[in-house]
Amino acid sequence: LPSGWKKDPRPAHERGSPSYTKRSQGGLGSEGTPGRPARPGFDNTATTYDHGGYNRRRQFYTDLLVRASMYRRRSQSSRSGASPRSTIGEFRSALLPVLLVASIWCFIFWTSLWFSLYDSLSDDVDDNRLFNRRGKGVLAKKLEQFLAGSPSPETVDVRRWEESTIEDSVLRRMVDPDSSSKLQQFLKQSSGGYPNLIIEAFLETALETDGTERLASRASNNPQDLVRTAYPYNRESASSNFDKQGACSRVGAQWTLPTSHPPALDKIFDRNVLRKENMYDHRHALAGISIEKNNFGFCPVDADPFLPWLHDVFPSGDGSFIELVISNKRRCNTDPNKFVSDLINLEPQIALMQPVPVKRGGSGRYVLATSIDDADKDGRQTRFICRFHSSILEGTTLRNIELGETLSTYSYNPEHANYLKRGSKPILTSLEQGHDEQIWNAVWNARCPVPQFVEGDGLTLQAFIASGKTVLHGVPSVYLDLVPVRTPARRTKEGFGIPGVKSTFDPDLVWGDDHYLPPVQASGRLVNIPVCLPPTVERPVIDVGDFELTRPSERKDKTHFLVGCVWAAHSFSTRGQTTISDQSTSSRLLEFLTYHTSIAGFDHVYVYDNSLSNRTLQHVTDLFPRDVVTRIPWPHRVCNNNRPMHSNPGERSSQYAAESSCRARYGPNTLWMASLDVGEFPVIAQHPANKSVE
């Protein structure tokens, strides 16, 4: 029975009907229940309730349990704040303003998107950049590209031009044979026989500090303060009546790059063996002076060490980027007892190997960021501003066309690679540490992404470069300018921004959070670097409109199984020799090529010809089919030909750069590659016809 209840002990005839009694709460009590007298021996404090039988008692207990259960549910609902139905109603009431705010935000977002897409087609008079308004058709195409996942106008520099000024599209006019021929004739008459633009440099003075450790601002640089120099190629036939070859008439443009003086001028600039004089003492003569005085230079790096010591430049097979092979000139002369001036002057060569974060500011300017996360996505690890341009002839006026700007990337981070080397020192070694023995820092690669220049008919600059249409009769129509981002070289091994490595370098202390870089026109830079043909061997043809553009095969589809790279010269001197010249390379190269292509099973051999005179190795390479042997002119001198154990150890800069160039140029099209000397012959372990990879 429930608590407080008990069965009535009286007989049935006295109770009249079955009943139960409940103890009185507060004194109905002692005299018994009203209308029923108290009896001795019974609980006179009980109140009797008659339910009329067993079924009534069971129904009573059932009702009691149901009411208790309902009470508990109501108690829980009251503790939770509301009933389920009231909770849903309150949730709907709270969600209504959220949905309203989200709807307003979506409306503002899509409205601003439409306005931004429309504004990207409008005219922009700043910086002489004109955009072409082509109406609804172009807007629809641009929206389609955006919705398909193409890069947005905020991240890709898309240049368009007015049809009133240029009747045909920019890209089509660049590759038009008639327009290109007229432009080449105009350049020949105005530049001493050169059918294309020649490489020039704008030299800038050394960096300064503001009296503390912070880098002084260069935002107010004046273009008139730069020294302009020019570096024509084929200078031995510098006659205005002589028709010179185009910069892309040979394999690559590396033979036009200014890296060193010719051997004939060793009496003026000193030799590369047993050198006694610092190159710093000859830096102005090496760089040359202004182009207006027809006085040309040989290498601008010693005069402006932030300029890259460029040894090779070529586009990738798909035209998406331009590969740069750069040597570290500070490693040429490392004896701290003799070449202190060179070691101090060339410290910026180390800075170029150290990535910096950059972001875009107002008015097309760039700002040094203080962290990787603060930088733009394409500027987290960069070092050069890459500006692409072309030229067109309008009457008798040569007009420069800017095709876009991008920020360079690294094929690998040299600072990170140096950090991973066991027992390595910082890339920038101090004079007290002696000469630099870290040979892995002798050469490095950078890349300049090609901008997504898109014409109204869908043709892109990348597709034209990949197809080779931008080179006509060995003359390029696209050029590259390199603008280095100038910061002091870091002296710590852990660098800056290496994942998982704590750095002691503090960018806030060195340049702060508002260090604007000077405009491109007021920055030291290399200009008019020719963009030649991509080094792809096999390019299947695809049809795009009226043009047959080519697209390289995927990297997994290798053109070759095994290729070889060899660096050689018609005559050479062994290390440490000053007068003895060995001229046996021709006969040895003939044996080398015959063995490797006919016996060893090499599909192709690339010969980097380092001959520095009119006598080259071409008469040997021409004996073999062009699809088997390729000769690459490589006129870059070895900057230090001393013996390895000399107090100023030798630096085979030309050879290291050639091997790096061969890997970057032809590596994507082969499964295996070997870098060999002309005296190295591998022994065959099995028949060369068995080329299965097991």
Q: Please, could you describe this protein's structure?
A:
It is a single chain. The chain is an alpha+beta fold and 694 residues long. Helices cover 24% and strands 18% of the residues. The chain has 16 helices and 23 strands. The strands form seven sheets. A six-stranded antiparallel beta sheet has the order 5-4-17-16-10-11. A four-stranded antiparallel beta sheet has the order 6-7-13-12. The radius of gyration is 41 Å and the shape is globular. The termini are far apart. Residues 17-51, 121-168, 237-242 and 537-555 have low confidence and may be disordered.
Into which percentage range does the β-strand content fall? Answer: 15-25%
Number of strands: 23
How many whole angstroms does the radius of gyration measure? Answer: 41 Å
Strand neighbour order, sheet with most strands: 5-4-17-16-10-11
Regions with pLDDT < 50 over 5+ consecutive residues?
17-51, 121-168, 237-242, 537-555
Q: Calculate the mean pLDDT score and round it.
A: 78
Largest sheet: 6 strands, antiparallel
Instruction: Characterize the overall form.
Output: globular
| Structural class by SSE content | alpha+beta
N-C termini distance: 88 Å
Helix content: 10-25%
Number of helices: 16
